[in-house]
Amino acid sequence: MRKLKITELNRISPEDFKKAEKIPLVVVLDNVRSLHNVGSVFRTSDAFLAEAVYLCGITATPPHAEIHKTALGAENSVNWKYFTTTLEAIQELRQQGYVLAAVEQAENSISLDELRLENKKYALILGNEVHGVAQEVMNLCDFCIEIPQFGTKHSLNVSVTAGIVIWESFKKLTNK
Q1: Is residue 44 part of a domain?
Q2: Of the candidates 107, 101, 159, 153, which has an alpha carbon nearest to the alpha carbon of residue 129?
Q3: What is the rounded end-to-end Cα distance, in angstroms, of the chain?
Q4: Structural domain includes residue 109
Q5: Which of 48, 31, 36, 26 is nearest to 72 (CA)?
């Protein structure tokens, strides 16, 4: 087997990405402190055609060298918006008709492998690396998604979590 060259990957330009049809998904970062995690979420959101990334609270915004280090330019292709608080982002998303899903370990959460998404617009809310999604934010969500875990640790890095949940959402929203 031969690795493909970058020129064989049929990548679209950032301009074409902006014009491309997106999946009805916004990724919300609730006070994510690591700039590498922020960059990684941009890159994953680009890979799976998410509509936008909403950056809230202490979450850093582009342009920033540390975000660019992991985003590799995706911070320029994926639409993003900054909010002083996650509650402000939620208010805007509600007004635009989004269904809000926290990604967190919580009572009555839905296991990712059992998640069913309808033909609606969704916002995935990912939380701080230490405290997770704030309880005041959880209180406003329509449901909570939990990734099943089977080892001794019961948490994943926020960028890993984003990759798993965005990919699963992409598959469910596009029937791929």
Answers
A1: yes
A2: 159
A3: 25
A4: yes
A5: 36
96, HSE (Cβ side, Cα atoms, 13 Å)? 14
- Domains held by the chain: number: 1
Tokens standing for residue 143 = 């449901």
pLDDT tens, residue by residue, 55-114: 999 999 999 999 999 999 999 999 999 999 999 999 999 999 999 999 999 999 999 999
Report whether 48 contacts 23 (CB < 8 A).
yes
State both tokens at 105. 């370990």
Residues 6+ apart with CB under 8 A from 65: none
- Residue 6 confidence (pLDDT): 87
CA distance 147 to 62: 29
Q: Are 123 and 25 in contact (CB under 8 A)?
A: yes
Question: Phi/psi at 153 (nearest 5 deg)?
Answer: -95, 145
Give a yes or no: residue 119 inside a domain: yes
Structural tokens at position 130: 């230490």
